[in-house]
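Lecture 7, part B: from sequences to assemblies.

Below are the input chains for today's worked example.
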Amino acid sequence: MKILVCISNVPDTTSKINFTDGDTKFDTNGVQFVINPNDEFGLTRAMWFKEKQGATVHIATVGGLTVEPTMRKALAIGADEAFRINTEPTDGFSVAQQLAEVVKNGGYDLVIGGRESIDYNGGMVPGILASLTNMNFINSCINLEIDGNNVTAVREIDGGKEKLTSSLPLVVGGQKGLVEESDLRIPNMRGIMMARKKALTVVEPVDATKATEDKKFDKPAPKGQVKLADSVDQLVDLLHNEAKVI
Amino acid sequence: MSVLVYTESEQGKFKKNAFEVASYASAVAKMMGTIVTAIAFNSTENESLGEYGVSKVINVKDDALATFNAGSYASSIAEAVKSTDAKVVILSSSTDTKYLAPLLSAKLSAGYAPNVVQAPDSTSPFTVKRTAFSNKGFAHTQIDTDIKIVGVSNNAFGAHENKTAISVEEIGAVADAATNDTKSVEIDKVVGKATIADADIVVSAGRGMKGPENWGMIEELADVLGAATACSKPVSDLGWRPHGEHVGQTGKPVASNLYIAIGISGAIQHLAGVSASKTKVVINNDPEAPFFKAADYGIVGDAFEVVPQLIEKLKDFKAQNG
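Predicted structure of the full complex, as structure tokens:
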């Protein structure tokens, strides 16, 4: 089985978010970048397939040179080969078109991306990619089993979960549940050394259409001071008479 | 030209978010000087959308679509976009809709802006305000394509009555041309209980509860309030509660009217995930817990004392206030 994991380079979850250039750009100053958590669950599941069922695992990232440390980390975790599509990611619609080209050329059976990136939260890349490559698609996937060409998966739904069957080739929008948090791997020294020697191929972008543009950003209004209640009686009174939520 | 809205139903009945997205569509249509057409699947109460500004409902009646299928639903919605010459498509933020939205975006070559929190900033150019950076910020996103898809955040715009004369057209499903052999086998869903996605009130607890055996009082509090239960990331990682309850940056976002956090210190990732909730209450024995800085109301105290008192007080309150 040939697997491609699409990886987005995002600010660490603990990052404070600021904007610059008249609030038109995300301020990367002092920000640590990591593998998008939803993608990392997918990558870890891909490693499981590699080790338990035999698979080749490639990764692809759309971005400039600055995304390579994150890609090397994915290689250190155990991916075999990497493709960097050499253009700045602008919107999900065009990123999916860039990745579709890699998918078409690579003949992958399974493509895993995160359900959404935790920075721009577009939540569209895996689905658009599936459409562009005529592959099946399962989103918010929390369990994935593959037997030959047959797929059994579980996806999260509001208030529960749904079991699905499908077949390869398949694109998955992954998240926590594909593997557990405790299954995530921290690259060891050997992995890091080996990652340096693995192929990271730079691919030139294709012509892609942009569909959306983030024109301006702002931050939520600062919160007022918390009101501390001395008793549950006072709390219930505040919630009923002041906040009017009960 | 019209604005098309996809109104979700369950066993024939519209979900709460159907009226919110219909209201949103109505606001957009007003800005653009046009009308709202809704598309529904196997709905039995189509006329009710007329209360929220919808002029026409296309109800796709087909037993083959009794269970949600992202590919098939997207095909029928795309067909309705073409038949009504819709330039703007309004969707909800449910898990099902977020599944079909990118498929629809690809089919229509339409730009998609999810998690939109208010009526468009402008319709020409078409710009919407949406949450980004997992609720730590907002982006004003311009959609440049001929057809635009807007995903409206849960509980952000609200349902607004706007009585309109309504007509209903029933059609069959369109054949799904694309590869689609993804099929539902089994749905495992709690029936008759509020879900995190659409609950007005969410009661959430963290490691301060010390162990899964102590969740009885959390569930009782949720029952009294008709609330959904949720938990922090460590609690779901420890296996105390199911993953589906994990709220925060890598879990589910919460946009309820009232969010009660019990024994949750308030890590930045958790605060981001719940920031869209309108009123936040924190119960924690540590007055220095970061969550107090992000909360509207709080009680500094031991959850094991405060929560049982709160349950009793709320039972009395409910008895008096219905």
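Note for the exam: Chain B has eight helices and 18 strands. Keep this in mind when comparing with the next example.
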